[in-house]
């Protein structure tokens, strides 16, 4: 499904990002896996048996210069890149009243600025040469239904706005869509308050737990030509908990 494609994935070394990398490779793509954690990147490379179509790059997505340097590397070493998955993000599991200034800045920098930097530089790279491409942005059900962590919910709502605007800015060459999962079976689930988890679960029409690989399936669909008529859209993964 992704044969001859080259995909950048941020936040690639663990959780949903790791499953996206594995799924993209399984579908025939080459992948440039970006993460701030160099140790996890090494583990990922070893897990994939030193796959020769998996490249790793350590950087902080919220650092503009590091992202700029990364795209110089991409243009030099991987000029055929055509896909981007903006996945890197953090969740501090705090009530709004508990947040300190530095924590607010950290969430905004990673969850919003990181997406902006990568989208901007990826977009420039492709549009200058009128090349076709795809961006998939990782949002959350919290963007639409609210979050017990207001700053996280705000950041994920911003990604939906970025997705819609980017789809207009980058048309007709780059398709841009968002994925908005509800609770996914990752360690992050352990930090969500029990009352909020119960609310989600009580609304679900399907009782099958959502796994990281299920989210990866939707991402790879959006990266593929099977989704060629979708742009500016948000794909819910919530077991029917919220009907729109």
Descriptive overview:
The protein contains eight helices and seven strands; from the N terminus they run E-H-E-H-E-H-E-H-E-H-H-E-H-H-E. The chain has one domain (6-237): Rossmann fold (3-Layer(aba) Sandwich). With 244 residues, the protein is α/β, with parallel strands linked by helices. The protein has a seven-stranded parallel sheet with strand order 3-2-1-4-5-6-7, with helices on both faces. Helix 4 (101-127) links the parallel strand 4 (83-86) and strand 5 (133-138).
List the helices and strands and how they pair.
Blueprint: E1 6-10, H1 15-26, E2 30-35, H2 38-47, E3 54-58, H3 64-77, E4 83-86, H4 101-127, E5 133-138, H5 142-145, H6 150-169, E6 174-181, H7 194-203, H8 212-223, E7 234-237
Parallel strand pairs: 1-2, 1-4, 2-3, 4-5, 5-6, 6-7
Helix pairs in contact: 1-8, 3-4, 4-6
Jot down its keywords.
alpha/beta, Rossmann fold, 8 helices, 45% helix, 16% strand
Total beta strands: 7
pLDDT average, as an integer? 94
N-to-C CA distance: 29 Å
Strand order of the largest sheet: 3-2-1-4-5-6-7
Tally of individual domains: 1
Globally, the shape reads globular
| Percent helix range | 40-55%
Please give the count of helices. Answer: 8
Short summary:
By secondary structure, the protein is α/β, with parallel strands linked by helices. Helices cover about 45% and strands about 15% of the residues.
């Amino acid at each position: 499904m992704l044969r001859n494609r080259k995909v950048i994935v941020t936040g690639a070394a663990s959780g949903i990002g790791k499953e996206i990398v594995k799924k993209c490779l399984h579908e025939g793509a080459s992948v440039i896996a970006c993460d701030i954690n160099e140790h996890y990147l090494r583990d990922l490379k070893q897990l994939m048996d030193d796959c020769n179509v998996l490249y790793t790059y350590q950087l902080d997505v919220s650092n503009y210069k590091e992202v700029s340097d990364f795209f110089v590397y991409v243009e030099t070493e991987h000029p055929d890149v055509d896909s981007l998955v903006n996945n890197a993000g953090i969740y501090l599991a705090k009530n709004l009243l508990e947040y300190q200034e530095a924590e607010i800045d950290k969430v905004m920098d990673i969850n919003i600025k990181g997406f902006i930097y990568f989208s901007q530089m990826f977009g420039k790279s492709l549009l200058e040469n009128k090349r076709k491409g795809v961006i998939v942005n990782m949002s959350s059900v919290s963007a639409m239904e609210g979050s017990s962590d207001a700053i996280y919910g705000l950041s994920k709502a911003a990604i939906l706005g970025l997705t819609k605007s980017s789809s207009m800015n980058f048309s007709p060459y780059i398709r841009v869509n968002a994925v908005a999962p509800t609770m996914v079976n990752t360690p992050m689930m352990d930090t969500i308050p029990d009352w909020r988890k119960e609310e989600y679960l009580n609304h679900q029409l399907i009782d099958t737990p959502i796994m990281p690989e299920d989210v990866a399936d939707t991402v790879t669909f959006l990266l593929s030509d099977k989704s060629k008529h979708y742009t500016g859209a948000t794909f819910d993964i919530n077991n029917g908990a919220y009907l729109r």
